[in-house]
Amino acid sequence: MTQALKPLWLAATALAGSLALWSGSAHAQKFDGLAATPQMGWNSWNTFACDINEQLIRDTADAMVANGLKDAGYVYVNIDDCWHGKRDDKGVIHPDPVRFPSGMKALAEYVHDRGLKLGIYSDAGATTCGGKPGSRGHEYQDAITYAEWGIDYIKYDWCDTKGLNSAAAYTTMRDAIRAAGRPMLLSICEWGDTRPWEWAKDVGHSWRTTGDIYPCWDCEFSQGSFSAWGVTRILDKQAGLRQHAGPGHWNDMDMLVVGKGLSEDEDRAHFSAWAMLASPLILGNDVRSMPATTRRILTNAGAIAVNQDRLGVPAWRFLQTGDLEYWAKPLADGDWALMVLNRGAQAAPVSFDWGAYHINDDFSKRTADFKRQPYAWTEVWSGRRGDTTRKLSAQLPSHGVLLLRLKSKT
Questions:
Q1: Active-site residue, selected from the candidate residues 81, 123, 157, 309
Q2: Could you tell me the pTM of the whole model?
């Protein structure tokens, strides 16, 4: 498209979007076929915040290919807040010319050439959380621009939105993406404030269920007007939400903080919980320089398979004994996943008599009667094997986890 024609095209498409809004959005839909399983990728915010540039994104994409993250399933390279420059006299947004001198289209091509996808960030308000230009009043224009750049994923935040209705604001961006014509995953980030699990299934592909995560086990970190939450605090906030998630629409427990200061046991437990509850797996560490222990956790094929199971049913806690919690997740092909989580400050013995439990899931209509139906199991972190004819016994360290995949023996 020539530069001379581009303003006319933008105006025509914006008009079409306005007409679509005027006539109602009953026929507009989000793009299907995206996030059939929880999306996997990386996001710049947790490590770099506003200190980002195109070389960081290029180097990150290269590292994701070189260190096995791409092969493990992490495909999105997501640029968070502060990439923005200014809007021009026609209202078109441009990237910061100092931080992103080659432009977003060239950066998307670089990422695509490596078999990865590029994500970007905006906000439903007039300004982003970092004070950059938001998309309010420019939704259709921005969606067209992102489509022209080759963007694959939009994280859409909720700062500076006083007076806005969240469902309406996110539906507007959904309709704008549809009008722009390029399939782009819409990640809703309004922190669970307006219960998006009740209205967002047909709007976005995932929605945040809580405020931001903080790299601690069990804490609330006050940031003045809001709080960030530790791993177990976020886990607790998922109670009652599993029935709202499934293929194409996921409860998002926020980005992973694996490799950001937790212990190795806590990192494994954190990753296991996100896998079991079918949360998107969006890395927040510096993947260019992560230690081997972090890489092994993030690329564990068994844990990722639990998260990416095509049945798409999140886990639920079916038993708690002291500091030990037992979570079950039905999987495709009759398999199950079982997580034993030690939330306590001390090591704890696990002694689980399979035959004493008949797990029944009203949501998925799946049952597991271990007394009548034996299963073989593999613990995905250690490779240990066993079956349900014998009691499960282990010594679980403080904040440690067992993650078992169960397969019927008949």
A1: 157
A2: 0.93
